[in-house]
Amino acid sequence: MSKLYVVATPIGNLNDFSPRAIEVLNEVDIILAEDTRHSLRLLNSFDIKTKMTAYHKFNEKKKSFEIIDMMKEKDMNVAIITDAGTPCISDPGYEIVKEAHENEIEVYGVPGCSAVINSLSIAGFDTLSFSFLGFLPRENKETIEFYERIKNNDTYSIVVYESPKRILKSLKTMQEFLGDIEIAVLTEMTKVHEKIFRGKISKVLSELNEDENAEKGEYAIVINNKDYHTEKENDSNGALTIEGKLIDEIVSNNVSMKDAIKIVTDKYHLSKSEVYDASLKLKNMFE
184 near 125, Cβ under 8 Å? Predict the structure, then answer.
């Protein structure tokens, strides 16, 4: 009876490739690879000669039907791999796994590397519950909706991905929407130049701005969502509105409204736009 194997591959260090993964890839009839040229280097490193065929986001649905039909007609085993990490986790794989189940083809996981799990394990935040939200959005409308999802998300840690060319801009946007929250930013995981930047967003931004290699390597960002929501909950229990906090800072510290907006945003992990709207309400109240 045909079987489908979902096989994890290294995210950087080839020594992370498991003996079982190598055995399975040697024994299956065909390997579905996200990028056959990229995967050929991996297979050659372990002397794996199994035939490959391209399976990526642009042909995933069509290819899934073709492969499943072949598996139903013949007694053949198939493995799916991606460029790095575990298939289906922000990578192709979902369609063929779904079709395999619906056609009563057995599906087996060959676990290994996952950038999501690796980043959570070394970020140092509570992982009793967590969410993975994929790549950060690029469109303004999607960005607003995305951060509303985070504000309404009560899991302890949240993982997102970002490209090196956008990391600085995206962290500034995150700070605007969520305040100066605590995060861990990880790049080049399992590789020679692996780095972790951890702390408030302002601190991480400062360190990245000084890093000449900041625009190299993919990034995983872990948000300490537990502390973010705990502080917001404690803050709301204090009964002070944002308007009240602004007034308190202006009166207590004799600062301008502009300075009060920055202080309240950073101190209470609020979005800049949220505090600015509150300042406009105050302005209207006193006009």
Answer: yes
